[in-house]
C-alpha cells in the first residue's frame, strides 16, 4: 500500500472526499451519487408549471456555495428528479474516449481535437420510470422525453472561486477572475424506440464530466427525494442531505435555495407568511418521506430582523455523527439572497 506521505495534495483531498462519502451513506439503500453542484443549487424552481420563458437569462446565487448563470429557461422539480434518477442508475454510467465526429478523418485541424472524452448513461424508459416511482406505462414516455428536451436546451455559465465575490463582480458588470465554463447539463439524448424497454442514451455535459473525474460527488438519499410531494421539499432535501454535519438551516438559506428574495424588501408580509407556511410543509414532508426523524423551529433576532431557524435530525444518522453548527450564518436583512443554479 502506498504511504500517504507520498501522495500529492490532490490525491489526499480525493481520499478525504471518498471517506466522507462512505461515512455519509447512512445505511441508505441504493443512494444516488450526484455531483455536488447539482445538490446545492436553486436552478430548479420549486414548481412544475409556469416556468420562466426560454428567452430569459438569470443569475442563481446561493451564498457561500455557488453562482451560475442560466440561459434558456428555468428548470423545475421534474427536471431535478430526472437528473437524480439517471445518477441513481450509476451502473448504467460509462466514461470513455471516442473519436471526435467533427474532426477530419485524415488528420487534425487547429483547435479541433481528434478524440473527445465522454460520460454517458445508457438506460431504458422503464429504468427511468421505475426509478422515479412513476407508472411504467407508455403514456409516460412522452413526458420523460419532454423533460430531457428541456434539459438539453439549458445553457449554464459556471464560475469557480468564492461565490459571493463572483456575485459582486457580476452585479458590477465585471467578469469574475479565475476559471469558468459555458456548458449544458446534457449534450445529447438518443433513443431507439417508444417501447418501455427501448434504449435511451444520455450524453452528459462538460460540468458533469469534470465532477466525475474529480470525484466531486455526494451521496444522496434518492428514496426520500422521489417520495417527496412538496416541490419546496424537493428543493431543500438535496442541500440538507448533502451537508451531513449540519444540524440546522436558517430560512435565509432556504429562501436562496428556491430563488426567493424573501427578506430583501421586494416581497410583502403576505408573501413572507406564505413562504414560511411552505417551509413548514416541506419539513413535514421530509419527515413523512423518512428523510428526517424530526424538526423544530427557533425564532432568532427581534423586530424586523426576526428569523426562523430549522433544527432537524436525520432519520438515518451516521454511526460517528457529531452534529456541528451550520457555518453559513444568517445574513442581515437586505443582503444578497438570490438563487443558484449549480454550485459547491
From TrEMBL:
<feature type="region of interest" description="Disordered">
    <location>
        <begin position="1"/>
        <end position="36"/>
    </location>
</feature>
<protein>
    <recommendedName>
        <fullName>Replication protein</fullName>
    </recommendedName>
</protein>
<feature type="compositionally biased region" description="Basic and acidic residues">
    <location>
        <begin position="1"/>
        <end position="21"/>
    </location>
</feature>
Amino acid at each position: 500500500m502506498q504511504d500517504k506521505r507520498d501522495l500529492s495534495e490532490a490525491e489526499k483531498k480525493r481520499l478525504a472526499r471518498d471517506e466522507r462519502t462512505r461515512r455519509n451513506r447512512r445505511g441508505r439503500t441504493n443512494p444516488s451519487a450526484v455531483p455536488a453542484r447539482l445538490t446545492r443549487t436553486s436552478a430548479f424552481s420549486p414548481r412544475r408549471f409556469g416556468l420562466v420563458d426560454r428567452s430569459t437569462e438569470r443569475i442563481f446565487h446561493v451564498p457561500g456555495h455557488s453562482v451560475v448563470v442560466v440561459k434558456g429557461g428555468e428548470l423545475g422539480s421534474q427536471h431535478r428528479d430526472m437528473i437524480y434518477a439517471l445518477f441513481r442508475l450509476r451502473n448504467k454510467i460509462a466514461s470513455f474516449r471516442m473519436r471526435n465526429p467533427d474532426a477530419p478523418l485524415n488528420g487534425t485541424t487547429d483547435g479541433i481535437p481528434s478524440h473527445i472524452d465522454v460520460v454517458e448513461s445508457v438506460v431504458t424508459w422503464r429504468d427511468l420510470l421505475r426509478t422515479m416511482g412513476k407508472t411504467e406505462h407508455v403514456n409516460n414516455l412522452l413526458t420523460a422525453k419532454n423533460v430531457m428536451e428541456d434539459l438539453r436546451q439549458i445553457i449554464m455559465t459556471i464560475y469557480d472561486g468564492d461565490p459571493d465575490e463572483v456575485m459582486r463582480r457580476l452585479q458590477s458588470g465585471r467578469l469574475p477572475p479565475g476559471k469558468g465554463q459555458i456548458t449544458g447539463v446534457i449534450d445529447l439524448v438518443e433513443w431507439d424506440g417508444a417501447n418501455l424497454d427501448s434504449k435511451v442514451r444520455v450524453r452528459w455535459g462538460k460540468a458533469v464530466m469534470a465532477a466525475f473525474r474529480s470525484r466531486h460527488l455526494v451521496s444522496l438519499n434518492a428514496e426520500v427525494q422521489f417520495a417527496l410531494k412538496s416541490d419546496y421539499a424537493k428543493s431543500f432535501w438535496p442541500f440538507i442531505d448533502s451537508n451531513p454535519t449540519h444540524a440546522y438551516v436558517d430560512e435565509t438559506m432556504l429562501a436562496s435555495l428556491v430563488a426567493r428574495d424573501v427578506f430583501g424588501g421586494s416581497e410583502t408580509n403576505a408573501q413572507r407568511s406564505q413562504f414560511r407556511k411552505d417551509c413548514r410543509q416541506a419539513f413535514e414532508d421530509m419527515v413523512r418521506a423518512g428523510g428526517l426523524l424530526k424538526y423544530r423551529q427557533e425564532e432568532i433576532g427581534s423586530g424586523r430582523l426576526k428569523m426562523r431557524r430549522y433544527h432537524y435530525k436525520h432519520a438515518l444518522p451516521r454511526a460517528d455523527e457529531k452534529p456541528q453548527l451550520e457555518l453559513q450564518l444568517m445574513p442581515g436583512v437586505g443582503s444578497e439572497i438570490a438563487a443558484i443554479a449549480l454550485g459547491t
